[in-house]
Amino acid sequence: xxxxxxxxxxxxxxxxxxxxxxxxxxxxxxxxxxxxxxxxxxxxxxxxxxxxxxxxxxxxxxxxxxxxxxxxxxxxxxxxxxxxxxxxxxxxxxxxxxxxxxxxxxxxxxxxxxxxxxxxxxxxxxxxxxxxxxxxxxxxxxxxxxxxxxxxxxxxxxxxxxxxxxxxxxxxxxx
Length: 175
What we know:
Number of strands: 5
Structural class: alpha+beta
Order of helices and strands: HEHEHEHEEHH
Oligomer: single chain
């Protein structure tokens, strides 16, 4: 490949990955065209992008960015996977595909998060974290919990008093 062509590909990769802060690298070698189509379709439905690249060119394109560490020590070709709702959701989807027998050849190789390189084990560990949606629901529960407890404590004695008054009035009405 000529230097001019390498520079053009590097510039295109830099443009495509502009604004991407976190990614997962995956091995897609061995997937036939039908499985690759199904894989890309499944990821596209979740707004996740896949780009198969030669790692040396990707290393040149991401040099000095937060994605740069992802390509350290990786040889050959790999797929850059990015996008989705948040990074944890992306990692969960990649890990789920890694376990899926339909895409047996697909496997996570690592990635980059906050400018740090991720190992395949670290990617699996991150997949167990709560996603943004789950974190928001936990936060809402923690915020609303004390309020509902306070409400129950305020209403409880009033309800007890009301039932005692009602019971007393029924006793007097019966006599």
